[in-house]
Amino acid sequence: MCTIRFEGSVGYYAASMLDGPEVVIEGNAGWALGENMMAGKISVSKNAGASVGSTMRGGELFVGGDAGARAGISMKGGSLIVAGNSGFLTGFMMQKGRIIICGDAGEALGDSMYEGTIYVGGSIASLGADATIEEISEEELLDVLAALRDHGIENKRSFTKVVSAKKLYHYDTLERLEKSAL
Question: Which PANTHER family does this entry report, sorted A to Z (predicted)?
């Protein structure tokens, strides 16, 4: 496997459309780190800007600090792990994959998500439209903790699991019913 190492911070869209290598960033990252990532691994030691992991389809993206707004927007697979806090609209329109936030999550978490799972180790400012809290199984918790151990995070023991309530799945049907009620 090829490893690409950056000593210092990177700008917008770093490691976008990644399909296989490992990218290590020893610093911060601007907007859209790992946008449309297909496979491979990205690790940023500090913070990542808005839209980290947007539209990612596979692989693993690790943020050693905080993630900005819209982290994991329209994710279609893979894992996004945030050691710190994550901003508003994290997981917006998520379609598949997993987001693990060790710290707090901002407002509208999981707004309009279809599938996928978000795990939060801290507090949740608010859930987005059609997001709901579900009980986490022992097997899921062990899997989350194993993913965190791979990044040297040992101190987390409990997480809140957020998934889609699946009420927006049939939006076209709801829209027709709402229009007929007028």
Answer: TUNGSTEN FORMYLMETHANOFURAN DEHYDROGENASE, SUBUNIT C (FWDC), TUNGSTEN-CONTAINING FORMYLMETHANOFURAN DEHYDROGENASE 2 SUBUNIT C
Distance in angstroms (rounded) separating the CA atoms of residues 157 and 176: 45
Length of the chain: 182
Which positions ≥6 away from 23 have C-beta within 8 Å? 3, 4, 5, 6, 14, 15, 40, 41, 42, 43
Residue whose tokens read 């399909």 = 19
Distance CA 120, CA 131 (A): 13
76 with 56: CB under 8 angstroms?
yes
Q: Check if CATH label 3.40.50.10330 holds for domain 3-180.
A: no
Q: How far apart are CA 19 and CA 97, in angstroms?
A: 17
* Cβ proximity of 4 and 21 under 8 Å: yes
Give Cα separations from 105 to 29, 40, 102, 160, 180 (angstroms): 19, 25, 9, 11, 38
Phi, psi of 175 (to 5 degrees): -60, -45
pLDDT, tens digit, for every residue of 148-165? 999 999 977 799 999 999
pLDDT of amino acid 30: 97
Q: Which of 15, 2, 75 is nearest to 44 (CA)?
A: 15
Chain centroid to CA 165: 18
